[in-house]
Amino acid sequence: MIAIQNLKFRYGKQAWLFDDLNTKFEMGKIYGLLGRNGAGKTTLLKLISGLRYAHQGRVEVAGYDSRRRLPDMLQKIFMVPEQFRLPGMKAVEYANLYGCFYQKFDFDGFAGLMEEFELDIQEKLTEMSYGKKKKFLISFGLATNAEVLLLDEPTNGLDIPAKMKFRKIMAKSLTNNRLVVISTHQVKDIEGLIDHVKFIDKGRIILDKSLDELADKLVFTTVSDLTGQELYSQKIFGGWQVILPASGQSSSMVDLEILFTAAIAKDSKLLNFLNSKN
Amino acid sequence: MKSNFFNFNRFVLQLKRDVAIYYKIALILYSIIVLPFLIKLFLGMFSFKVLPMDMEFQKSIFFKVLPLVVFIFSAFSFRDFRSDLSAQFYLMLPVSHFEKFLSMWVIVFVLNPIATVIAFYVIDVVFVVFTWIFTKYFAIFNIFHIFQAGSIEFTLLKATFIKYLAFMTIFFAGAASFKKDAWLKTLLVSFVISFALVIVLSLTVFAYISLLKHIWNIDTYQISLAYNVNPFDDTSWYSQLVYAVGIVVFTALAYFKIIEKEV
Prior knowledge:
CATH superfamily of the largest domain in chain A: P-loop containing nucleotide triphosphate hydrolases
Number of helices of chain B: 8
Radius of gyration of chain B: 23 Å
Order of helices and strands of chain A: EEEHEEHEHHHEHEEEHEEEHH
Distance between the termini of chain B: 30 Å
Strand content of chain A: 25-35%
CATH class of the largest domain in chain A: Alpha Beta
Oligomer: heterodimer
Strand order of the largest sheet of chain A: 6-7-8-3-9-10
Helix content of chain B: over 70%
Structural class of chain B: mainly alpha
Number of domains of chain A: 2
Distance between the termini of chain A: 23 Å
CATH topology of the largest domain in chain A: Rossmann fold
Largest sheet of chain B: none
CATH architecture of the largest domain in chain A: 3-Layer(aba) Sandwich
Number of domains of chain B: 1
């Protein structure tokens, strides 16, 4: 589990990026950490993994203070960053060299995932394309069997079939002993994969709900005319795409893209509705 | 339950990983630095300018080339810190800060000098073989003869060793502290700090001498003869004390830089 308490963080002397942030991530779930560019998603992942230190407050991973970067904590967490540099060695050499740091590393599982992603285990990492490197790191991260897996913009650089494979592999990999946090601004890529969303905007978590809860409370549909009941509306060709309060009997798939747009809108009726329902 | 501060198995894994990352750059460095000496040896072999048991040449290897190799290597240590993109993986390896530090320390201060000495010894052997093949003269060109050259040489060797260890530690700490062009920044910072220290020390000594001369009317010339202080004398106790303190301070600095590293 990840627990963030009274977190304060800023870069240099800039304004606070996080000012008294409190949130937690529970085991057995795939979280979607969504937000605009520069909202603080990557920074939050770095604070969780201990790559950045909070000015105030505490970030705990599996009960360990993340800023201490203790080996026991680092055993339980793996991050696939958005930007990275890999050493000039073959994928298999990397797995042999770095895999043994993780007590639960599954080499066969790694090889299987590489195959599933159609990657050659004998290929040199520095000769791989960005998308291939990403797939390699996702495979390695999953093979570590780390309890907490942080993925920063994992679908960047992946083509459409690879994105589908990514969703399939991630869905398969989730167990009750694992927690996955996927940070992205490409919300469409993780639809149908995540079971909980955390929208981050201006350093605050503005929405923190499970998709089941959202599906129960909201209806995502298209109408030809507005009635004034809508929590959010957006003009599309031939009508309006709207979010309505659920009347009880109806249920629809959560459209993350429109949900996110509605949540970050000024004086968001959607957020007022969801918060008042709490 | 494994300790979160030091565990031998984890340390070995980190060392293995660091050696795998560094051995290529080490080989390139050794080749670049050793090659001119190798060429000089072979040219000397044919022109008979470098005679067997040339102690000056042996000394230049130990006092110039070996320090150069280890300096460069210490300045290029913590390669992962040169970029945040590689530092993030390094910092997230499930190994303690101390094990990361110790692994790099062992590579720079133990394995690297040993590898350099071995490299020179190999050159030595190669030279002996080639000399015998081409000139039928069996040259004994053992660089370890330098250790048998008497107590004066040994004192100098010991003093030089401490001095170089101190400088290496400075570059080691610099490599752990700075991101880009660590060696250059270390040089600049060292120069600025040394310059400032020399000025402060000179002013202090000047003030002290003035006090002695004008207030207590003491003959400073006699004092200067009694305390013949030469700050550039590496064999003096005060130089060695300064170097020893420097080694401790900069080693600690390098360790704490790893702890406080953020990317």
